[in-house]
Amino acid sequence: MIAYLRGEILSINDKSAIILAGDVGYEVFLSGSAARALSGKKEGAVYTYLSVREDEVSLYGFSSPEEKELFLKLISVQGVGPKLGVTILSQLDVEKLALAIARSDFGALTAVRGLGKKTAERIILELKEKISEMYAVTSSDGEDASMTQTTGYEDLVVALMSLGYTKAESSKAINRAIQNGASTMEDILLEAMKNM
User: Is the pTM of this model over 0.70?
Assistant: First the structure.
């Protein structure tokens, strides 16, 4: 796997670059911050992710290990492929994206071109706790965002699913309950059931 690439920049635009390393020119699809970091330079380096699919092999480049790690978390979510992952990171930098996920900011996520509401909900549902722990993000009132809103989140989804609701319906109702101010698991569950 190609994890890091350094070399001469043969060409670059806001989406990709060709980097000459060891007499081989690698086309690398760049995040916004990686493109800005390499722009105007003769040489540069990126942290990379090699995507291998049946019909395509692509190399994606990032400006830092943290950005690459966040990208890997994004593409672990169903419905988020490498192209969408890079698009998200090109429109929201690491800090803004981490805050949007930790604070359940659907508006910030759905403002990204190509990112629909269901996928945004899935990203928040699956990554909120991990992101809050990784970046020690706090909510707007200073409370640790990884506390009450995310503790037992998956348990709440399972509880609603056991009542016959789909995972998507359950996730949506729980997110709505949290947005309406419910904070304890019991309150979130009761509020979610009212909205089903």
Answer: no
